[in-house]
Specification:
Blueprint (H helix, E strand, L loop, with lengths): L14 H15 L11 H8 L3 H14 L2 E4 L3 E4 L5 H18 L8 H8 L26 H11 L18 H15 L8 E4 L2 H12 L5 E6 L3 H9 L3 E8 L2 E2 L11 E6 L13 H14 L2 E5 L15 H4 L5 E6 L1 H4 L6 E4 L5 H11 L5 H12 L2 H28 L3 E3 L7 E6 L5 H11 L3 E3 L12 E5 L5 H19 L1
Helix pairs in contact: 1-3, 1-4, 2-3, 6-14, 7-14, 8-9, 15-17, 16-17
């Protein structure tokens, strides 16, 4: 194998010792793993320009210490049975180094201090729950065949003009046209391609909006409960947060009426409220739009999983009802195509197009051209909408199965939200158990369940959970819920 090691230039230690120390460091740091074959003594001596005898002596020392094994005829290998003590030695050394470095002051910006020191800014992965499959479809639900064909076809560049450096900060124009057309059909969004801005993800789009529209101390209104990623983003920009109540008609707009001035931004998920699943009524939507027109505030409409509804009349997007150029529409392909694709997009009010275009050209103007071309074909040829229809039908059955089995095995001890969309279900469990005990029993039974505590700005609900169903087959849902009910029953006797 090829192995690059360097020897210190100013060391007084014997050369064989320098070589053995360098190899030991490579093993403990993980560059060389248990079972890896080492270069022959001849190869390493030629590379380091030292005598072969010196390398042999280094190997012998490592053999005596248990780091490597040497077999005549087959060479030398990192010991595949290294002791735990040897493997943890480097970790202990690294920890000491980190502790020593703690005393070295790093001069951070105000933004840096908020990110590092604010107790209210939690991990960036707080809303990505493994139990819910990270809010994404399963591998078996992905349209891999049609996506592969789109990628293959899109990689066939027919002329040099197609390889000209694409520097439109808003992304590949044919894709923007395809997205605008798709949203007009599916969500009643009103826009042209020049108002579509493509990003590497919805979170980066949200971050740019915060940097351009908000100053430290500005007041931002958020749903309570709501999407943790939005809360985290606003806190990183130093904003003050106003929690808005949520009921069966969505966000309670009356909570904004006392703030005709002062609120710079409102972030909401009106078509499938995160996490309650409620849908904002038309009356509330019009009330919110009228308030925005009076106050001059912008509204961010996050339409994060609008594709999955299982009944009820479709409600048009807030953006499609907007008459005052106040709504910023944000979404992504995460819920439909992750991990095949990770792209997000904004539909911008006309008055924001120039400033977002200018800022994006300085921050993020280069997106993968091949993926954008493939997605354009994927949308225009109808693959996206066929995939959504197929998975929606599958998810509808799984959701119905979850509701049926919860009612069957838990009866009146479970309260179910009447949401008719999304990839998970809001439930409240009336068990005489601590919340952590309920979560642990769900893990044992392989029930997809997480607490909603992280979604609340204040006053979290006790024993309120999200239960995922989109990534589980019907048989698993049935058996897992039954086992979960039996564990709960046994613990409450």
């Amino acid at each position: 194998m090829s192995l690059v090691i360097s020897l210190p230039q100013d060391s007084n230690a014997p050369v064989y010792k320098q070589v053995s120390d360098a190899l030991r460091e490579a093993i403990l740091s993980g560059r060389l793993k248990p079972g890896d074959k080492l270069p022959s003594t001849r190869e390493l001596s030629d590379f380091l320009r030292i005598s072969r005898f010196t390398v042999m002596r280094s190997y012998e020392e490592l053999v005596s210490q248990g780091y490597i094994l040497s077999n005549s005829g087959s060479g030398s290998f990192v010991n595949p049975h290294l002791s735990l003590e040897l493997l943890t030695e480097q970790k202990i050394r690294d920890k000491r180094h980190e502790e020593d470095a703690d005393g070295e002051a790093v001069k951070l910006s105000d933004f840096g201090h908020r990110v590092i020191n604010s107790p209210d800014i939690e991990s960036a992965f707080v809303e990505l729950f493994a139990e819910l499959n990270y809010g994404a479809p399963t591998l078996g639900a992905l349209p891999l065949t049609s996506w592969r064909k789109a990628l293959n076809h899109s990689s066939r560049f027919e002329g040099d003009e197609e390889l000209i450096y694409e520097n439109d900060p808003f992304g590949y124009m044919p894709l923007r046209e395809a997205i605008a057309s798709y949203l007009a059909r599916s969500r009643s969004v009103k826009c042209s391609a020049d108002r579509v801005a493509i990003f590497s993800g919805a979170q980066s789009a949200l971050d740019l909006l915060g940097r351009l529209l908000l100053n430290r101390g500005d007041l931002v209104a958020l749903e309570n409960p709501g999407f943790p990623g939005a809360r985290r983003s606003m806190l990183m920009h130093g904003c003050a947060l106003l929690p808005l109540r949520v009921d069966q008609e969505g966000v309670v707009v009356d909570d904004l009426e006392n703030f005709t001035e002062g609120i710079k931004l409102v972030y909401i998920t009106p078509s499938h409220q995160c996490p309650t699943g409620s849908v904002m009524s038309i009356a509330r939507r019009m009330q919110l739009l009228n308030w925005a027109q009076r106050s001059g505030a912008f509204i961010i409409e996050d339409d994060y999983d609008c594709e999955y509804r299982y009944g009820g009349k479709p409600v048009p997007s807030l953006q499609g009802l907007d008459q005052s150029d106040s709504v910023i529409y944000i979404s992504s392909f995460w819920k439909v195509l992750y991990p095949v694709l990770r792209l997000g997009y904004l539909i911008l009010p006309k008055r924001l197009v120039p400033i977002i275009e200018r800022a994006k050209s300085l921050i993020e103007r280069d997106l993968p051209l091949l993926e954008q071309r493939a997605l354009t074909e994927f949308i225009n040829d109808g693959h996206l909408e066929r995939h959504i229809k197929r998975t929606r039908d599958n998810y509808r059955v799984r959701r119905a199965t979850l509701i049926h089995t919860l009612t069957k095995y838990l009866g009146k001890r479970v309260q179910l939200s009447d949401t008719k969309g999304g990839m998970d279900l809001l439930v409240r469990l009336d068990f005489d158990l601590e919340e952590e005990a309920i979560v642990q029993m769900a893990k044992i039974a392989r029930v997809s369940l997480v607490s909603t505590r992280q979604h609340y700005l204040e006053e979290p609900k006790e024993k309120e959970f999200l239960m995922g169903f989109a990534h589980l087959d019907v048989e698993h849902i049935e058996t897992a819920v039954q086992e979960f009910a039996e564990l709960v029953e046994a613990s409450t006797i």
